[in-house]
Specification:
Length: 108
């Protein structure tokens, strides 16, 4: 996979996934995507995954000549994330079940 620069209101770098990917970011949020989705790095170095249909509707590729004149650094480090990992889906839980499990409080 090769990094390409895209733009909306903000510049991002993105790679299209060639296999499923699942990871947990430093804030503990779970991200997962399938082959064809996009791994997106924002200007602050945060990573996320955007579904292909949304990404391709929102983002526009920056032409090479514009990228060459930009003075932006690739700040993030994609260290420690596997190249591919199966997407694991859990059964959906109701709001009450999630709240009870995370807080340890039992709701009546």
């Amino acid at each position: 996979m090769e990094w390409k620069t895209y733009r909306t209101r903000f510049l991002v770098k993105a790679k299209q996934l060639n296999s499923n990917l699942s990871f947990i970011d430093p804030l503990g949020r779970h991200h997962s995507g399938r082959k064809g989705d996009y791994l997106v790095e924002s200007s602050d170095g945060a990573f996320s995954i955007t579904p292909r249909r949304i990404f391709e509707d929102v983002y526009v590729t920056m032409p090479a000549e514009h990228r060459a004149t930009m003075r932006t650094e690739h700040r993030g480090a994609f260290i420690g994330l596997p190249e591919a990992e199966p997407v694991r889906r859990k059964a959906p839980h109701s709001y009450r079940e999630r709240r009870t499990a995370s807080s340890g409080v039992q709701l009546m």
